[in-house]
């Protein structure tokens, strides 16, 4: 089945450029000129990924993204922005964007980001493979603290309450679960998330870790489960006790 993405941008020329370029790469592209009707569009069409402009006349992309994540929808989203301020990018990542790309950009860079996210999403089952070699969909749910991670339904629960996580955040949590008590550098986390060929920066990992901490931790500023190893990276501590990090 062909990859399908939805480009949401009020710039007609950009929409047509991406439709033509990505089409030549075997990706089916549908377009939407504004974010206001995104939710209605998704009721009719379920693309593999959304490319969403941050600033549009009929409503900004961040608001649309926020509504999407609040509804529990984890469809991958790449945000487009003409802003150069890192704060705007951080806000977008905190709200659940899977990646950010600044305008103007080379369409090949966008293509690389799209492929990296979809490769990660499709390889998530391999990342979460159990040590006994059983397929991930047959792996028993993993419990730590009061949380339960269900690999089959791709959900995280706090006792009887299902929690909202984006696809990228769920993938990151599974990586931590599969490497308990192991110090993972930012570079290693990016490699596990995106594959060894990914050449993006690792700054987004800190934002994703912060998002997970806001879900998992009573006090995200003093985390128990995902702890920082100074000058090295992060370590997942299933029991929430003080870790003895192991380099990895």
Folded structure, characterized:
By secondary structure, this protein is α/β, with parallel strands linked by helices. It has 2 domains: 3-122, Rossmann fold (3-Layer(aba) Sandwich); 126-247, Winged helix-like DNA-binding domain superfamily/Winged helix DNA-binding domain (Arc Repressor Mutant, subunit A, Orthogonal Bundle), CATH 1.10.10.10. It is 38% helix and 21% strand. The chain has 9 helices and 13 strands. It has helices at 12-24, 38-44, 61-70, 86-94, 107-122, 124-127, 167-178, 186-194, 203-216; strands at residues 3-8, 27-32, 49-53, 77-81, 99-102, 142-144, 147-150, 155-158, 161-163, 182-184, 226-229, 233-236, 246-247. The protein has a 5-stranded parallel beta sheet, sandwiched between helices. A 4-stranded antiparallel beta sheet has the order 6-7-8-9, covered by helices on one side. A 4-stranded mixed beta sheet has the order 11-12-10-13. Helix 7 crosses helix 9 (203-216). The longest helix is centred in the middle third of the chain and has 16 residues, at 107-122. The chain is globular, with a radius of gyration of 18 Å. Residues 4-118 form the Response regulatory domain. Keywords: DNA-binding, Phosphoprotein, Transcription, Transcription regulation, Two-component regulatory system. Residues 139-238 form the OmpR/PhoB-type domain.
């Amino acid at each position: 089945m062909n990859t399908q993405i939805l480009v949401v941008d009020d710039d007609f020329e950009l929409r047509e450029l991406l439709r033509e370029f990505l089409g030549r790469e075997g990706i089916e592209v549908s377009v939407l000129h504004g974010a206001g009707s995104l939710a209605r569009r998704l009721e009719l069409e379920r693309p593999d990924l959304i490319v969403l402009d941050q600033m549009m006349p009929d409503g900004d992309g961040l608001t649309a993204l926020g509504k999407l994540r609040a509804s529990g929808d984890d469809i991958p989203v790449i945000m487009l922005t003409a802003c150069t301020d890192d704060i705007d990018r951080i806000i977008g990542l905190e709200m659940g964007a899977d990646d950010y790309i600044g305008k103007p950009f080379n369409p090949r860079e966008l293509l690389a980001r799209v492929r990296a996210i979809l490769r990660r999403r499709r390889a998530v089952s391999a990342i979460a493979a159990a040590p006994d070699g059983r397929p991930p969909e047959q792996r028993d749910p993993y419990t730590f603290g009061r949380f339960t991670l269900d690999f089959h339904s791709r959900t995280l629960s706090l006792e009887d309450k299902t929690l909202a996580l984006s696809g990228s955040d769920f993938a990151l949590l599974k990586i931590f679960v599969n490497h308990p008590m192991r110090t993972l550098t930012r570079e290693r986390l990016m490699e596990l998330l995106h594959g060894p060929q990914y050449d993006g920066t690792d700054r987004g990992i800190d934002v994703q870790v912060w998002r997970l901490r806001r879900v998992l931790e009573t006090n995200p500023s003093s985390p128990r489960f995902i702890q920082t190893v100074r000058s090295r990276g992060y370590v997942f501590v299933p029991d929430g006790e003080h870790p003895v990090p192991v380099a990895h």
